[in-house]
Amino acid sequence: MSQDRIRNFSIIAHIDHGKSTLADRILEVTDTVSGREMREQLLDSMDLERERGITIKAQAVRVLWKGHQLNLIDTPGHVDFTYEVSRSLQACEGAVLVVDAAQGVEAQTVANAYLAIENNLELLAVVNKIDLPAADPDGAAAEIAELIGGAANDVLRISAKTGQGIEAVLDAVIARIPAPSGAAAASPRALIFDSSYDQYRGVVAFVRAVDGTFRTGEGVQAMAQGTRFEAEELGFFSPTMRASQTLEAGEVGYLITGLKDVSRLRVGDTLTSRENPAGEPLPGYKDVKPMVFSGLFPTDSDEYPNLRDALEKLKLNDGALIYEPETSQALGFGFRCGFLGLLHMEIVRERLEREFDLDLLVTAPNVAYQVVTLAGAEIEVHNPADMPPDIERVEEPYIRASIIVPKEYVGPVMELATDRRGRFDHMEYLSEERAVLIYELPLAEVVVDFYDQLKSRTRGYASFDYDIVGFREGNLVKLDVLIAGEPVDALSLIIHRDSAYGRGRALVDRLRQEIPRQMFDVPVQAAIGSRVIARETIKAKRKDVLAKCYGGDITRKRKLLEQQKKGKKRMKQVGAVEVPQEAFLAVLNLNDNGR
Amino acid sequence: MSGVSHLYVHLPFCAQRCGYCDFVTVVGRRGEHGPYVQALLAELELERPLLAPRLETVFVGGGTPTFTDERELRTLLTALPPATEVTVEANPETVTTEVATLLLDCGVTRVSLGAQTFDPQLLSVLERVAGPDDVRRSFYHLRDAGCDNISLDLIYGIPGQSPAALDADIDEALALDPEHLSCYELEAKPGTRFTHRHGEELARQADALEGYFERVVERLAGAGYRWYETANFCRPPEAAGGLDLRSRHNLAYWLGRDYVGIGVGAVSTVAGRRWRNTPRLPVYLSALGRGEPPPRELEALLEDVQQRERLMLGLRLDEPLVLADLAPVVNADALARMERLELVARGGGEAESGETLTLTPRGRLLGGGVTVELLA
Fold first, then answer.
1. Relative to the CA of A325, which of A275, A331, A495, B290 has its CA 20 to 30 Å away?
2. ipTM score here?
3. Do B63 and B91 touch, CB atoms closer than 8 A?
4. pLDDT, position A439
5. Percentage of residues in chain A with pLDDT exceeding 70?
6. What is the pLDDT, as a whole number, of residue A72?
7. Nearest beta carbon to residue B372 from set A548, A552, A564
8. B23-46: buried (b, 16+ CB within 10 Å) or exposed (e) per residue?
9. Residue B152, CB half-sphere, CA atoms under 13 Å: how many?
């Protein structure tokens, strides 16, 4: 199809503002699916996505409307997937920005709108859920106008639920979003904005053809990674896979590669023809680096091979997940995994537990550290236990956080951000009622319970988003925990020197409560290097024996002991001390009050 | 095979049920004492083929055996097979001169007296009928009737019991100079009336009570008693004219010997099979009324289960436990660890019986935990 009849667009929104419902309605209105085929949130193919109401992987669907080919590119809705969102946006010329009429602009609305603007997209603002009793379409429209400029009157008012205003959205997509303008006769270039893995056909790339024409069967090359393969099948989703002989400039579709390893094809890379290669790749490819790490250990050590298999399978569909074997003297064999962010970590863990039926122990998350040793070596540390002793300088990742709150919660949010070593950048009022606070914060201060704290201090009203702004030096120390004199690798922390004493004391106190008394005194210490900064002793039990045992009791008493034996098997052995698995999570639940 | 030489006889009747008790007991029912004794004798006849012609021990437990109608009690005791040791459990308020004489007349050699405590306040917490004077009086009635082997049961860790009150109880008990003492920590079983009433107080006292067991052992050992089983103490032979005053019947349990139990809820273990009679009195009576054995719950004890039990029970005793045939159920690493912690001592390497295990005094205080560790 000629490019002037093509429109490529995304829908962007804060979570739960109705992005997926709008996508469903568009498929219905354009007769892409019949009402009977319609499932709620059709584009979210994984069970988990549907259940959590979020979209993990971007996909693209082609619909026809009034003689035009519209490609709707669905984007992930969460900060962890910013890079994927931005790739998806790069495949478009415009975006429909959806805002809930009752909620107004939220943190992800802001973040996504800015991303779209950075990508030079035409924004088409829509207020959704106008059928709700609590809807305030004018208020929401005014907030959008304040955010992206323009007039509140230009903002469309719809209800994706009832279908009201959907056709007007499609008309506006044609009228207001520019057509693609690639060089149709040039060497072919296509942007990979997502990929997935099919057990039989290998890696499937989702691409936006920018220039030229791709043909089925031709040799293709990924320009940044250099990976070569054959275009086994080209096609598009409508909404199921439909093969097509070509993908032309401006079109969006899929390309089946036959590759057996998702990591060989990275989102953001440019595909070109091997026969007729383009000289320059499309701009903007970057290697995404995981920023949050944690150890995953099977609760039952016999499950280790199953965990390994599960991670291998998961990795096929999730190129951003990295993992390497880790051995902890406390927790045994497991894997240190790297994630894009907290939600990504949560999703991976949940998929492992749900889809692979694994029982996991997940250590407290930490961030990536860039360390310069006294000898001048530069290393990246993903695990507090690996922190070298001779440190010249440590740098940690910082984020720029936008937090949107009703104005009465500005105080508590500032207090929290300051507690977490936040540096205030600026504050703006979105309306008379709501403000957006911009802070720079160490990512490490956010990975543990920042979001929970934020929610509880603002009665759930705050919305939060962030992006990584780089690495900065910090006055950081490694806090070790020793149980009965043995350092417990899984409990080591890297924290700011100023909070080391408080955290050390709280941690030791918490462990004293979590670790049952043993048959000997157990000292629990927190130390920085060789200096002990906090100490508690778990006193030895003085009595542990069944009062009486005669002929009538023997079976019952034997079963009681066998039960105790089973209970002990769930404990982890640290030296001679039995430590319940919950104790390893103690670090997770320590807040500043040492709750 | 020469037959089982240990017989347990259960008499479930009590004047009232004490709040902390979880034995099979029946309150009152005087009219049923006769039929019950007849049923017991019928069951004894059914089990006779399992028993040796002359028994080593008979133990009549309860309930409160001495609450049973005197005529019926006499009928029972007279009909039981002869044994070297015949023990009867008794509650102080039921032991009159007449009952004491009856017991001794009928061949009873040993009486286990449920004193529990001498503190009136604590007796009422335990919902016991007897007062402190009943305890002392009953003891002397037994002595006067010629009983030369009396055991006192004491309970410690009663809600509200101070360390001084514990010491006072021990003083009172020692003043009577019994041959044997059984001392139990109060077990507040979940769901009992007692736990409902006193659970919070017990939880509050938990730390303080922990030292009581040690105190009991210290005091009784200090008074010359042999701590021969976790909860049991006796005068050593050198203080008893060379007699072994340990409960021979209970030793049979702890050494893993076979035993036959008759009566409601009674348990037997014979040749790798264990069975428990129905705990329901009417069901028991009607089955034996028809000349049939009572309904029973059966448990087959596999070889390794028997070994586990021998380990669990053997570690309660002060005598070395022979390891040889228990090796498959003992975790060698744990054994080495327990030895390093000085909770267990090994010995007997050269002796004919082979290697042995003995718990150290602290190991015995932690015997349950040590057993759990050692079990492979």
1. A495
2. 0.92
3. no
4. 95
5. 91
6. 93
7. A564
8. ebbbeeeeebbeebbbbbbbbbee
9. 27
